[in-house]
């Protein structure tokens, strides 16, 4: 029976009638807004009254995405990623743009992830609704990501596979443009 299901799935994918979901992992330091962002993306109309499941399937611009969240995990993002790296198509790295004291720590984690992987990474600078939040340019500089996206070969392996977008989980803004960029990157990689 499993053979028949696998064959039908393969044929539907081959004919373009069905696509396998892309797996995106949501990472970041603690208190960067991962769980709230995960909840907003997976249940946009609901109030957050409980912890969401660690993985949910969503649809963005017609693409099925299996979104996996690091959540309140105390493990370093890089260690969490190692458990799932084989099945991940892209990552979203959340950064608390209002916590200037931890930007160097976020930079180290991000660069470790970039050194260990070759998939696209969307960096979301969260909490832009707070007055102490850094600008997009300041966040790019603090994280060592040039604005022109011509990244150092030792840092990111590929030109343009990481990009910063600013967002606010509380105000529910700024996700769309970042995820559209990520979808384009995943599509380009799969070509």
Would you write up a description of this structure?
- This protein has 191 residues and is an alpha/beta fold.
- The chain has a single domain (20-190), classed as P-loop containing nucleotide triphosphate hydrolases (Rossmann fold, 3-Layer(aba) Sandwich).
- Helix content is 37%, strand content 20%.
- It has 7 helices and 6 strands, in the order αβαββαβαβααβα.
- It has helices at residues 2-14, 34-42, 77-82, 103-116, 136-143, 153-156, 175-190; strands at residues 22-28, 55-60, 63-69, 90-96, 121-126, 162-166.
- It has a 6-stranded mixed beta sheet with strand order 2-3-1-4-5-6, with helices on both faces.
- Strand 2 and strand 3 (63-69) form a beta hairpin.
- Mean pLDDT is 76; it is low at 150-159.
Helix content: 25-40%
Pairing-aware structural class of the strands and helices?
A: alpha/beta
Quaternary organisation of the protein chains: single chain
Shape: globular
Distance from N terminus to C terminus (CA atoms, Å) equals: 31 Å
CATH architecture grouping: 3-Layer(aba) Sandwich
Q: How are the strands ordered across the major sheet?
A: 2-3-1-4-5-6
Number of strands: 6
Secondary-structure element string:
HEHEEHEHEHHEH
Q: Whole-number radius of gyration?
A: 17 Å
The first-level CATH class name: Alpha Beta
| CATH topology (level 3) name | Rossmann fold
What can be said about the biggest beta sheet? 6 strands, mixed
What ranges have pLDDT less than 50 throughout 5 or more consecutive residues?
Answer: 150-159
Strand content: 15-25%
Name of the CATH homologous superfamily: P-loop containing nucleotide triphosphate hydrolases
